[in-house]
Amino acid sequence: EFKGSTVVELMKKEGTTLGLTVSGGIDKDGKPRVSNLRQGGIAARSDQLDVGDYIKAVNGINLAKFRHDEIISLLKNVGERVVLEVEYELPPVSVQGSSVIFRTVEVTLHKEGNTFGFVIRGRWRLENRTNRYSWRICQ
């Protein structure tokens, strides 16, 4: 089983929600995970989260020992800046006898400000399940 991880930073206005539903917790069915993304919500518009992603921490607070109600309360009262540490499953890579295509693409970017202003993300589909590819960025 291959896993990837990322940090997702979301900004929301006071009184609004992130637009995601979380299941899990130590009193439920295991690790906290995204079970729904509301279309048009902040989390969905970020294009950095998927249903099935595990939420490891919120603003540096590890969720491993949190009950479901504690996780929900934390997410509701988190404030305007939300930093989520997220883990997700990657598809197994089988090279021999597979239809995997390896491709190298060179792109030149001109940085403006502190970021390049985009998110790199890949997908694959198997029986209507969507997962991310692993990407490697080289300087």
From TrEMBL:
Subcellular location(s) of the protein: Cytoplasm
SMART domains in UniProt: PDZ
SUPFAM superfamilies: PDZ domain-like
Keyword Repeat: yes
Assigned keywords, A-Z: Cytoplasm, Repeat
GO BP term, example: neurotransmitter receptor transport, endosome to postsynaptic membrane
Main location: cytoplasm
GO cellular component: cytoplasm
Domain PDZ per the UniProt entry, residue ranges: 7-90
Protein name as it appears in the record: PDZ domain-containing protein
Organism: Balaenoptera physalus (Fin whale)
